[in-house]
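Researcher: Before we compare anything, I want clean individual predictions. No alignment, no superposition, just each chain on its own. First chain goes here; please echo the sequence and then give the structure tokens.
Model: Echoing the first chain and its structure:
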Amino acid sequence: MGTQKIGVVLMNLGTPVGSDPRSVRSYLAQFLMDPYVIDIPWLMRWILVHLLILPRRPKVSSHAYSLVWTERGSPLRFHTADLTEKVRAALGNDYAVEMGMRYGQPSIESALEKLAAANCRSLIAIPLFPQYSLAATESAVSEFRRVAGKALPDRPSVIVRDFFDDSRFLAAFEATCREELENKKPDFVLFSFHGLPERHVKKTDATRSHCLSSETCCAEMTEKNRNCYRAQSYATARALAQRLGLAPDKFGVSFQSRLGRTPWIKPYTDHLYDELPRRGIRRLLVVSPSFVADCLETLEEIEIRGREQFLKAGGTELWLTPSLNSRDDWARAVADFVRQPPAVYKK
């Protein structure tokens, strides 16, 4: 038997196996029943998901997925697969690298089963979510720990923390943004992050009094908001704007993808699509640094629906900056995360 390898799991959110309503329904059922996503008591969550959302939502979402589906299937899946291949090549024979989706296939469980079959001596998990959230990061971390405890209970494991301000992540996003800035020459850059319900953000506030308590609560990173998704998003945007040499009046931050009637973190991206043309901004470049792979939320929500709304409001151009996907510099950064993690979760 050869030298035992170190097992690496690259964890992303997930995607339906197909764009048809049945596949989308199965995916949404798994996703929405996660207590980290809809954080209400199980019975109330079941009623909400199975009686109110799933009878209608899969058909709408299926149409949206069909607009971005490719010959290779889901963009998020094949971009993550391509990234996994490049990271595997970069790390070499001492590592076994697999990808695992929190929802759908290939699952985190299937990734760990492969690493168990390879008899890996230890594990490193990288949640591919730059900013920390309960709904994405904590859910993936919890699932990894649950499955690893069964599949490889006696093997040490390391879980890489959020990397919203890591220079390697920022450098890769800077490069893709710079290419677009030079080619498109926009009037304004909008950093649009996935949204979260306000209650999710408040749950991560150890002080129970800082997050969303004022207009400036996210103006800088402190110990009080270390785990705040909104504060981390603003920090990522500020860092990228500084790297790109954007003046304060040439960029903004917003949050997209809200659902339901409960308050979500602001400002809202779709509101800015209407507002920016009234401020004289006609050529808009949108960057989504909460996603490291293009997916439904970037390709359909921003590039298709967002563009249509912005042009209807008086804009002349809206461009989506491609995500990191499987860029070589990003693959090198992720491989480096394995060797030198930004930070890791404590046991």
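Researcher: Okay. Second chain, same rules.
Model: Second chain and its structure:
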Amino acid sequence: MKKVAINLVRFNQSFEELILAVDAALAQDYDNFTFTFTENGSRESIKERLLEKYGDSPHFSYRDNGENLGFAGAHNKFFAESEAELVMPLNPDAIMQPGCLSALVAVFEDSTIGSAEGKMLKPEVLKDGSHLIDGTGLIISRSRRARERGQLQKDTGQYDQDTNIFGVSGTAPLYRKSALDKVRIGDRGYFDEDFFAYWEDLDLAWRLRLAGYRSVYVPNAILYHSRAVGQSKSGYKNPIQFISHHSKFSTKVKRWNWRNHLFAIIKNDFGSSFWRDSLFIFGREAAMFVYVIFCEPSTLGAIPDFFRLLPKMLKKRKAVKKMRVISSAEIGKWFLQKQSN
């Protein structure tokens, strides 16, 4: 039985906000797992309340990073120190349903699989008893726009047969630790810590694919996820809705979002598929730049940071090049897949 290590990172969430995720994780029927609650620089401690409620659980442990290392840094520290075969970064608002962990673990009997993701649903129940999809795996277009497959669609099982995905979301994925070790950059560069937050999961998914690992969607591994930041319902097809949706995000989020998806392309894209799709890529980036100028001028504050980090990204690109085992044409097939809303 493979050992699983789950890590939930807290940054200022209240005790009440977290207990659903912790309760659900500790209630999983898979026996060989540990659950670590990682404090990551929150203003107020909830350690005593956590230990009072969960301290007797054989699965539960508490650790304190002493500062905010970001999503990437906090999980990287955990990954580097873990000796488990499989590791899971768990978002504080991700509520695993019974049997979720067992279903995810089962697919790792296939040694080619480096990561897996369950069916993420919005927790609200619709009138007919169904749910909206939050995500069924990362997809990426010819313009290199990445997003969650099926997000905001009503779940009718429409994705349950198509289980081979480009990559997994960072919400509640399960990773093979040896695969992470193979694609890390430096001592603990699993997620890219220079991203700090947003699109570090895409970057890692891309590296795993380039290194020859598969990612799969496991439809019977169910979890509920509210998601603070997601895509607008109609995407670019409804510009007014798109602008209204993005206006709700903080300036930091918008800067990270814009900057980091560019870094993911710079680090990982290459070869014939890049040049084949270059008009789509540069066209989208030009359109986004015009949009930012007129609709999100505060996002332009990401530009100095972009150029400050660019030399590091180009250096990391060289490291990614060394781990590639598949061709540009092979990975380029993923960018041609049909993108449905």
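Researcher: What stands out in the second chain?
Model: The two ends are 38 Å apart (CA to CA). Additionally, Residues 96-341 form one domain.
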